[in-house]
Amino acid sequence: MSPNVSQNGNKKSLETSGSIFEIEDFDVLTSLERPRPVSVERVRSFDERSFSELSISLSPRAFGRNSDSSTHITDHLEYPLSSPHRRSGFNTPGSNCHFESHPLVADAWEALRRSLVYFRGQPVGTIAAVDHSVEDLNYDQVFVRDFVPSALAFLMNGEDEIVRNFLLKTLRLQSWEKRIDQFKLGEGVMPASFKVLHDPKRNNDTLIADFGESAIGRVAPVDSGFWWIILLRAYTKHTGDSSLAELPECQNGMRLILSLCLSEGFDTFPTLLCADGCCMIDRKMGIYGYPIEIQALFFMALRCARLLLKQDGEGKEFVDLIGNRLHALSFHMRSYFWLDLKQLNDIYRYKTEEYSHTALNKFNVMPDSLPDWVFDFMPSRGGYFIGNVSPARMDFRWFCLGNCVAILSSLATPEQSAAIMDLIEARWEELVGEMPLKICYPAIEGHQWRIITGCDPKNTRWSYHNGGSWPGELLLLSFSSNHGRI
């Protein structure tokens, strides 16, 4: 069949041939006219003048799959992070990028310095936000996930001590007894955040951790442990020193995290079950089940842990478990979470109520559940990992973090990585536009927003988690544009 996309009233039909896994299909799909952009109303609030000054480096061509850049993410995770202008002090940023003299860069480093948190005279992280115009709430804490981009900046600037201190302090907090009301959490759970309380009378500092007992919604962090392992790997490769990772405490900390996520249970899938709000999207947003962010981070952390664990008795056992899980997880994600024009066509024609191991519609997804916007959003060449797959449910929303981490961790095949970047380029106006990258797309609104978010005023459409723009995601996108690998 020749590729064809048509719309007649409410009836949509898609016909195509080939697969994203066959490289020759790119030539076929290129001949298609790209579907029109999704017509949506967006709320923008950004300094257009400042952003336009950086627009050259953030153009679709700069992030396209044909980028001339030869730098790969392996330079950041497989090989030591370095800069020809490395400096050990905390006063001046060392950077070899062409924005070094740009005032935005200087302002960013100044804000980063002001956000540093000290414990007994040593820097241990950065607070979530430096903004005194609003009530602090929990912004005065060091969040594990939020510190990771700051940690990478410090590493590339030669400031290893901050990252080492952070890794050791969070590891110490992991060993604390964790209770929410009368329930005891798993031993390997890492804190979502921590703060330093200073007693001026005794001149003493105390660490206070939050494992979910104080969090909004009382959600435990599933992703914190994964980020910790990934950052430990980045630190080890940057410094070239494996002594920190080889400490018995670090080895045990990794094994405790892995014990939680590799334990056998009732689940029939290799993906990791996750409640709503237990990751970067830490409020109710309908991502319960098997969200792409957690699966991609899970995969990346497993790969990092396999390189960091000692091949001793316990370590060897976990390395074997990791190998088996990686094989099953990569097959599952590449097969069932991947969506391109051909797969969209197949889902549209799914039969339901199939009972056998040969069923094509393995999750009994109803074709009528496909949202109208996905037909307009899917370009003729490109694809992405959808937000969630579980029985009778496919969340077709685009989630930036999960897709970028899928590229960086090699969860995505080279062909899928190129297709993800093709989609971002084709849908640049929707996903980036005149603002930093959106955390997800499209935003949910109206009655659906009321049901899914519980009328959360912070997550109105195009705000915060609900299609909000997150500048930090541009770091992952820039790494992903080179199709790097761990």
TrEMBL record:
Molecular function in Gene Ontology: endo-alpha-N-acetylgalactosaminidase activity; sucrose alpha-glucosidase activity
Family under the similarity heading: Belongs to the glycosyl hydrolase 100 family.
Keyword Acetylation included in the entry's annotation: no
Record's keyword annotation contains Magnesium: no
Keywords: Carbohydrate metabolism, Glycosidase, Hydrolase
Gene3D superfamilies associated with the record: 1.50.10.10
Pfam families xref list: Glyco_hydro_100
Catalytic activity: Hydrolysis of terminal non-reducing beta-D-fructofuranoside residues in beta-D-fructofuranosides
Organism: Carpinus fangiana
Domain of life of the organism encoding this protein: Eukaryota
Role: Invertase that cleaves sucrose into glucose and fructose.
Lineage: Eukaryota, Viridiplantae, Streptophyta, Embryophyta, Tracheophyta
The protein's Enzyme Commission number: 3.2.1.26
Protein name: Alkaline/neutral invertase
Stored InterPro entries: 6-hairpin_glycosidase_sf, 6hp_glycosidase-like_sf, Glyco_hydro_100
GO biological process: sucrose catabolic process
SUPFAM superfamilies, per database record: Six-hairpin glycosidases (SSF48208)
